[in-house]
Amino acid sequence: MYLPTFHLGDWSRAAAVAAVVAGIICVGEAAWIHAKASLAQALIGAAWRRELAGSRRTQPWPWADTRPLARLTLREGLHAREFMVLEGASGRNLAFGPAHDPASVMPGEPGNSIIEGHRDTHFAVLRNIKAGDTLRVETITRRDVDFVVTSIKVVDSRRARIALGAEQPRLTLVTCYPFDALVPGGPLRLVVTADAIHYINAYQ
Questions:
Q1: Fewest CB within 10 angstroms: 16, 67, 87, 101, which?
Q2: pLDDT at position 184
């Protein structure tokens, strides 16, 4: 029986081809995740505008079991990023945008409103956030609340708990940490706390 003989060069070429294929798969998967996140934000934004206009069609897509809850604007110097926030911080919702933890108060109300997001898509922007940066939350009731970042810390989710009580409106943004971790789902979280500056209501 003939057994094929493989030389070192053959194995090297095979390993190189395998590495290239694996790289293409990883890049393709990452590109798809970001494309899905961007497309979902556009669809959620359209649903938000329909809801503001009084439409009953508030689902971002026909099979969605969530709806847009608020629009979050993060300002860093002269730059601003907008994100549509979904109702309910499930793993499925987090794939499409930042999501509100239903155990906390609604954004803009007295108390601590918690919004979670993925570190490699929507909340990657938190990598560069600093104390003094400002946030704005626009709610479906057309009330806008401005916040200023007062605290940024890394905590262990197995030991730390975020307090839900606050006398004034407070906003807490949470994402996984570190941002460049090779394996997702570790116990560390970046927690950004922002307190309300004043109320704005342009529709009065």
A1: 16
A2: 74
Chain centroid to Cα 46, Å, comes to 18
| Candidate ranges 26-30, 72-76, 87-91; pick with highest mean pLDDT | 72-76
DSSP string covering 109-134: SBEEEEEE--TTTGGGGGGG--TT-E
Domains of the chain, residue spans: 66-200
| pTM for this prediction | 0.76
* Gap between the Cα atoms of 123 and 60, Å rounded: 20
Task: Enumerate residues 6+ apart whose C-beta is below 8 A from 131.
Answer: 149, 150, 151, 152
- Where does the pLDDT of residue 61 fall: very low under 50, low under 70, confident under 90, or very high at 90 and above? confident
pLDDT (0 to 100) of residue 95: 87
Q: Report domain 66-200's class.
A: mainly beta
- Cα distances from 22 to residues 9, 10, 17, 182, in angstroms, run 20, 18, 9, 15
The C-alpha atoms of residue 120 and residue 123 are separated, in whole angstroms, by 7
